[in-house]
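Here is a complete protein record:
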Amino acid sequence: MSAFSPVRIAATLLLALAAALCCVWLRVPLPWFIGPLLATAIASMLRAPTASWAPLRNAGQCTIGLALGLYFTPVMGALVLSLWWAVLLGIAWALLLGWLFGLWLQRTQARHLPGLNRATTWFAGAIGAASEMTLLSERAGARTDLVAAAHSLRLLIVAVLIPFGMQFAGVQGVDLALTTPLAFDAQGLGLLVLLAGASALALERLGYANPWFLGPMVLAMALTLAGVELTGIPSVLSNTAQLLIGVSLGVRFTPAFVHTAPRWLAAVAVGTLVMIVLSAGFGWLLSLGTGLHPATLLLGTAPGGIAEMSITAKVLQLGAPVVTVFQICRLFAVLLLVDPLYRRLYPRP
């Protein structure tokens, strides 16, 4: 629910804050993201009147985008450019993984969901750009409820399972290019926020995906690469942003989601777990050629969302700039190629 309802929004935020503080106490990885995400998702599925307000979600995405963009010093920029070949392999991997995921859904669910067409499984299997894939699937005559449910469940599993896996494996702070945080400057932050808002609105007007994340991130990246250092992002703002993003994801899990074809959701869950394992293997292979830690490349190639994987990399200090570039390039590739590939592989009679 995204309509403005002050009481529901406030109650949801209080629930999210309580969950975050509880996860901090329990030493859960990414407590300010995972706590609000899980608490809001569970409450929403139990028919609690949860609500997320779009401007707050946009503010959270803007903050995380700025925080990630500030990592891109000239040294980091040179490192990322040297990995162009690995980024291309990551794009090819994402397209292959999405195709295989879609085939898995088609072959396991065709008998249980009469009338299930290839458009549904193709766009449900695509890795990244969940809302855009749902819109494209509608144009192709797919069941958008199944597509949206597949993307929501995949994102939830990846966003929760990978951080816990990283913590269990003791993988944290292995960023080979860890940078010193910039000092906080109130005036610099004010100017940065104004510029970030303008860049986000410009991308939104041009119809780009994730404008409130990509616009501020590209702006901060450009300024940092040029040697302009306005301010750092205080941890309290970063934590608040994670909470807001967690809430915006959690409210997607409505009671209707629970009743969406249980066999379909089970197939999505199994397929997602397999993709995580395969991506871990692919990340390890890439690490042999790049010298980067396999955990960084797992986050860069994992079938999660750009914001969730970038937050994980930032908080756990696992090569956030590298992960961000891998995820951004994959996002643009998916947006540009998935629909033309579908029409080429499955032309209408």
Observations:
- The mean pLDDT is 88.
- The CA atoms of residues 177 and 320 lie 9 Å apart.
